[in-house]
Amino acid sequence: MQPKFSVIIPVKPGGEVRALAGLSRVTYPADLFEVLVAYGCQPSVQRNTAAREAKGEILYFLDDDSAVAPDFLDRAAAHYREQNVAAVGGPSLTPATDSPLQRAIGIAFSSAVGGGGVRNRYRKFGAARYSSDSELILCNLSFRREIFLAHEGLDERLYPNEENELMDRLQQEGHLLVHDPELAVQRSQRRTYRAYVRQMYGYGRGRGEQTLIAGKLKPITLAPSLFLVYALLVPLLIPLLGVSALPLLVYLAIVVLASMQGSLAGKDAALFPRLLLVYPTLHLVYGAGVIRGLISPRYRGGKQTHWDVEVRRVKPLGEAVQRSTFNVNGNPPISDGHPGGAAPK
């Protein structure tokens, strides 16, 4: 028997939900999936609120710009036939139509030099497999609703990294997570360098905050931060202590080689100078974010804001898929001004 899905998409008030275009073409039986759009300013709260309103057995989280394949629900449903599977997801791929800067960011994320152990979140590689949070990403990720709610959903103190914290808990309890490379979405990278810097700083800060909440530190988490400190101190330490600049020179050589390789793979010379900037930004800004998250986590910053969340069911279970189905502004909310979850723990 095929499971019922609740597709949940968080979006800022007044934002465009481009993901609906792909959802209008899915091949999964129309009576077995619904689509909920959650408006608000705190994605983890939005997702939790919509999850409580959902009627499906499986919660499938997308971002507002996640472009899905028509058979994505069919593929996900096949993995949930195994009862021990708690979460299923796939990679987020950069469209070939993106600008050179956006494609450079996507190449860096999907490379060993840039993405490292999490690069499979951004590329198709291998076959479907049991995995961990290192290969799964919240813009394309599903959970069994019963398990999700039993664990109180996403930790609302976190954004980003809220899904990583939950998946860590699930794996510790023996639940299985599945990464399916063919279960991919297309998502554009940040359009400007400034937005990319903010993204990497936020990723790093979220990882630092998650580390504090989990109470355990993975050594690899500190590698970018330690390199940042080293890079800043090298000019001072060389004349004082004779500290070698060789590691920095080796790093720069690796960046140049990785940039050349990425440019050749992308068949675009315009990628090379952008990759020369994107790689160091990824490492150094991420490292700065980790330090900030460890030293000054946002959830310890005093009074937390209680965001209101408005959830709209733009396609109910049992309703045929039509263009009019996804008229977001034309459908009444199922929950007006719903308080955005409980206060942060």
From TrEMBL:
Highest taxon above the source species: Bacteria
Keyword Membrane: yes
InterPro entries to which the protein is assigned, alphabetical: Glyco_trans_2-like, Glycosyltransf_2, Nucleotide-diphossugar_trans
Organism: Geomonas paludis
Descriptive protein name: Glycosyl transferase family 2
TM annotation in the entry: 226-257, 277-295
Pfam families, sorted: Glyco_trans_2_3
A GO molecular-function annotation: transferase activity
Stretches for region Disordered: 325-345
PANTHER family reported for this sequence: GLYCOSYLTRANSFERASE, SLR2126 PROTEIN
Swiss-Prot/TrEMBL keywords: Membrane, Transferase, Transmembrane, Transmembrane helix
The Glycosyltransferase 2-like domain, residue ranges: 59-254
